[in-house]
Design brief:
The protein contains 17 helices and eight strands. It has an eight-stranded mixed β-sheet, sandwiched between helices. It is globular.
Length: about 350
């Protein structure tokens, strides 16, 4: 049994807390919001973000960050990406040398272009940081619906240790050394999911969504490989797998926000309506910053940025994508000149 604290009591943190408790671990859940902790203590249910999912009576809840961090085997950092740096900074004085921290949020910081694990390493240099990602909506994980995910870590022994901690009969865990590729797939798929939602909001069909998913993963992989990620990662659970579920699921806050934008809402109005952090909005500008830094074209993500921040109409963005210069789908596949003739 491991002693684990979940730092962040949103839907994902709560679902993982329940999963880890069922796996036999001692689990403490921390939130900065006193009202949220009181609700969890009194109701043993997150009625706002994970209604209907009951939490065990012996699960602990606290607003005391020092108590939550000190002396734990594993810390699971589950705050939304805009709060990763601030929370990590506040945790730092209580984190022991070699402390294992698993980041489960998804995003890229706009002003630094750092992934979330890089932010944690910068703020808590004494920690060992791993990541967990894949097609895993909290609403389904909390109810024990089977899925498969990936733990990424620099050391194989660390990845295997976390694999054993998280793995269950409904939560299959693979491991990978490609932490960068995992995080980029996780962050950038949210931006493409906004595009998929916009298409839904405009009333487009399955063909449009399939095209966005297919060309979207091409963009994500193009940038990820240029940055040093492995192409195979983007073909796996944390790439195309997570992208499919986020673009198609009724649980996806990014898709829902995109749908509202396609129906005429502004980005701010859409986020207010969703009432949860829409990670793709925060990662969109960062993605374009990375594209510029690495000399990579991201046409779908570029159009999403134009809609979110430049006032471009959603249907005009679609036209811009459709009328781009003619391309070869896979330039690395050679032509057989004799057969063409």
């Amino acid at each position: 049994m491991a002693d684990i604290s979940i730092i962040g009591a949103g839907s994902w943190g709560t679902a993982l807390a329940l999963l880890l408790h069922k796996n036999g671990h001692h689990v403490t859940v921390w939130s900065i919001m006193e009202a949220e902790i009181k609700m969890l203590q009194n109701e043993h249910e997150h009625k706002d973000k994970l209604p209907g999912v009951k939490l065990p009576e012996d699960m602990e809840f606290t607003t005391d960050l020092e108590a939550a961090v000190t002396g734990r085997d594993v810390l699971v950092l589950a705050v939304p990406s805009p709060y990763t740096r601030g929370t990590s900074h506040n945790m730092q004085p209580y984190v022991k040398e070699g402390q294992l921290i698993v980041n489960v949020a998804k995003g890229v910081e706009e002003n630094t272009l750092l992934t979330l694990s890089q932010i944690i390493e910068e703020e808590i240099p004494q920690a060992e940081v791993a990541v967990l990602s894949g097609p895993s909506h909290a609403e389904e994980v909390g109810r024990g619906i089977p899925t498969t995910i990936v733990v990424g870590a620099k050391k194989k022994a660390t990845a295997e240790y976390l694999q054993n901690i998280f793995m269950s009969d409904v939560f299959r865990v693979y491991i990978s050394p490609d932490v960068l590729g995992i995080e980029l797939g996780a962050a950038l798929k949210n931006v493409v999911a906004l595009a998929a939602g916009i298409a839904d909001g405009l009333g487009y069909g399955d063909n449009t969504k399939a095209a966005l998913i297919t060309r979207g993963i091409t963009e994500i992989a193009r940038l990820g490989v240029a940055m040093g990620g492995r192409f195979e990662t983007f073909c796996g659970l944390t790439g195309i797998g997570d992208l499919i579920v986020t673009c198609a699921s009724v649980h996806s806050r990014n898709r829902r926000a995109g749908m509202l934008i396609g129906q005429g809402y502004t980005a701010r109005q859409a986020m207010d309506e969703v009432k949860m952090v829409v990670e793709g909005v925060y990662s969109a500008k960062a993605a374009m910053g990375l594209a510029k830094k690495y000399g990579v074209q991201l046409p779908i993500i570029e159009q999403v940025n134009s809609v979110l921040f430049d006032g471009q109409l959603a249907d005009e963005a679609v036209k811009n994508l459709m009328l781009r210069d003619k391309k070869i789908e896979n330039p690395i596949i050679p032509w057989d000149e004799e057969s063409v003739e």
